[in-house]
Amino acid sequence: MKIKYPFNTKSNYKSYVFQKTKNIALFLRNFYNNMVIIVEKCGIFNNIIKGKSVYSMVGTKVVIVDDSSFSVAFMKSILQENGFEVVGSAGTLEEVKEVVKETKPSLVTMDMTLPGTDGFECIRAVHEIDESIKVIVVSSMMDDEIVKEAKDHNVSAYVQKPVDADELITAVNRVMASEELYELLQKEYFSVFKEALLDGLNRMTKTLLTYKDEYSDKKEYQSEGMTIIIGIIGKFSGRMLFDLSKESANKMAAAMIRKEPADQDEMIAALGEFANIVSGNACSILNRKNKAFGLRVAPPTILHGDSVLISAPSFPTTTAIADTVFGELLLNVGFQRGDEKWM
Hints:
The chain has helices at 10-41, 45-49, 69-81, 93-103, 119-129, 144-152, 165-205, 246-257, 264-289, and strands at 61-65, 85-90, 107-110, 113-114, 117-118, 134-139, 157-160, 209-217, 221-222, 225-233, 238-245, 296-297, 301-304, 309-310, 317-324, 327-335. The protein is α/β, with parallel strands linked by helices. It has three domains: 10-42; 53-163, Response regulator (Rossmann fold), CATH 3.40.50.2300; 184-335, CheC-like (Chemotaxis protein chec, 3-Layer(aba) Sandwich). The strands form four sheets. Strands 8, 10, 11, 12, 13, 15 and 16 form a seven-stranded antiparallel beta sheet that branches. Strands 2-1-3-6-7 form a five-stranded parallel beta sheet, with helices on both faces. The protein has a two-stranded antiparallel ribbon with strand order 4-5. Residues 35-57 have low confidence and may be disordered.
């Protein structure tokens, strides 16, 4: 059976296909040009073309610390061209304190040589006001000793003068993207862990729980008798902790294994596996929200005794108290900012 084409010759058919292809290409080109106009008006075209983070367009507030008016003007121009909001500058320790308190920046660029002080004293002053402020050193001085001290002062990046615009913006974008990711984790993690605990308890014991209290602090506290700690590693490290009485632990283990634990080791093994499942599921959910988290769990550490004191971590954590049919269960989770490997 021959297929009949609505064309007199193959030449006519080829012309038809060519014209249709040309029309499609013209349509796509016009569509692209219109989209470029829209994107340019939104102020992000240059960053997309240059492969830079669109994060810079949200108006991140920056303070420049440098006693050279030329350096301040030069860096201000670079930062503003890339969408950052330069909210102030300072050239002395007192000016640093004043402008940081007044403007509340997210980022400070810091020269190392300043009249009557040095960059490290100013960095300490900045972090005394707000430890979450990111600091990037921009200085002509750069040797092994000063770089080590900069890391000890929680400096996020180091750019050597003379300043290269691309190098500065790359450093700023990387630092602020990491901070944005941490803030996302802070907003998401605790509700995810609470849901993972509720779901895990229901699946493994066929019971429910009710959260009755939630708070954040950095205090050490006395264990009720048994504490299970799961270390978490990835882009940001942290921990998940369960604490409950030995009686509650024994009842919960019995419900999980469908019999009374043969001994304390069997009870501990059951609770360790439970904590591992809850933390692993929570980390998997967070990783699906953003692959950059890359969270993984370490094997559980279990502490038990009549006078176990749980020390407070160096980073903020959130605690929830859950009522279960087995008794109260404390859930504590927290993450710390990553140690930026900038050299």
